[in-house]
Amino acid sequence: MAVRACGLIIYRRLQPAPSSKVTDSIEYLLLQTSYGTHHWTPPKGHVDPGEDDLQTAFRETQEEAGLQASQLTLIEGYKKELHYPVRGKPKTVVYWLAEMKDHNTEIKLSEEHQAFQWLKLEDACKFAEYEDMQAMLKEVHEFLCSRE
């Protein structure tokens, strides 16, 4: 059976400069793992027994980044599943999209992560080494731009 994990792609909007497009003020939260290759990823984790996928996404975000569900706005209409092998076993990760209500909210990392960054799309794609993660970030950005 495939390992199942869930998480949130979290973004914040900074105050855009008068000359810039609104979408230029969007930054994405990535966390750097403190294990393995120290890769960068949105907050995510394995589904616990009795938990539904969205509950898992919010719990993991709270555990890994210190963000409560009340500090986030879940964005309707975006949900994405990524499928990839981990140590030879299939893994499915389901992501939702959430906006920070207050862009100054402090991020509090768990021991699972050693660093975090708020990144504009181009930099977020550089930090996220995996092609499917880069493609998802671009897709999210297009989705947000289409809603402006």
Automatic annotation (TrEMBL):
GO terms for biological process: AMP biosynthetic process; ATP biosynthetic process. InterPro entries: NUDIX_hydrolase-like_dom_sf, NUDIX_hydrolase_CS, NUDIX_hydrolase_dom, Nudix_hydrolase_domain, Tetra_PHTase. It holds the Pfam family NUDIX. It catalyses: P(1),P(4)-bis(5'-guanosyl) tetraphosphate + H2O = GMP + GTP + 2 H(+); a 5'-end FAD-phospho-ribonucleoside in mRNA + H2O = a 5'-end phospho-adenosine-phospho-ribonucleoside in mRNA + FMN + 2 H(+); a 5'-end CoA-ribonucleoside in mRNA + H2O = a 5'-end phospho-adenosine-phospho-ribonucleoside in mRNA + (R)-4'-phosphopantetheine + 2 H(+). Its EC number is 3.6.1.17. Residues 1-141 form the Nudix hydrolase domain. Keywords: Hydrolase, Nucleotide-binding. PROSITE patterns: NUDIX, NUDIX_BOX. Catalyzes the asymmetric hydrolysis of diadenosine 5',5'''-P1,P4-tetraphosphate (Ap4A) to yield AMP and ATP. Exhibits decapping activity towards FAD-capped RNAs and dpCoA-capped RNAs in vitro. Belongs to the Nudix hydrolase family. This is Bis(5'-nucleosyl)-tetraphosphatase [asymmetrical]. It comes from Horornis vulcanius. The lineage of its organism: Eukaryota, Metazoa, Chordata, Craniata, Vertebrata.
